[in-house]
């Protein structure tokens, strides 16, 4: 699985990458939307690029 990159700002700040691991795809399917929603609701982050699709 590739790492997820989240940009800090629109002015070209350094990206942050999160690697989310789970014991199986079902747990990823359960927790990834919660993580994505939390990041989208945080004003620190302006862009989210999730590359894992179910």
Notes on the structure:
The chain is an alpha+beta fold. It has one domain. The protein has one helix and three strands. A hairpin with an 8-residue loop joins strand 1 and strand 2 (16-18). The chain starts with a strand and ends in a 5-residue tail after the last strand. The model has no long low-confidence stretch (mean pLDDT 79).
Low-confidence stretches: none
How many helices in DSSP terms?
1
Q: What is the number of E strands?
A: 3
Terminal CA distance reads: 12 Å
Q: In terms of structural class, how would the helical and strand content be classed? A: alpha+beta
Q: Can you write the helix and strand succession as a string?
A: EEHE
Global morphology: elongated
Helix content: 25-40%
Radius of gyration, in Å, reads 12 Å
Strand content: 15-25%
Strand order of the largest sheet: 2-1-3
Query: Averaging pLDDT over every residue, what do you get?
Result: 79
Instruction: Give the total of domains.
Output: 1
Summarize the structure.
With 54 residues, this protein is an alpha+beta fold. The protein has one helix at 25-40; strands spanning 4-7, 16-18, 47-49. It is built from 1 helix and 3 strands; from the N terminus they run ββαβ.
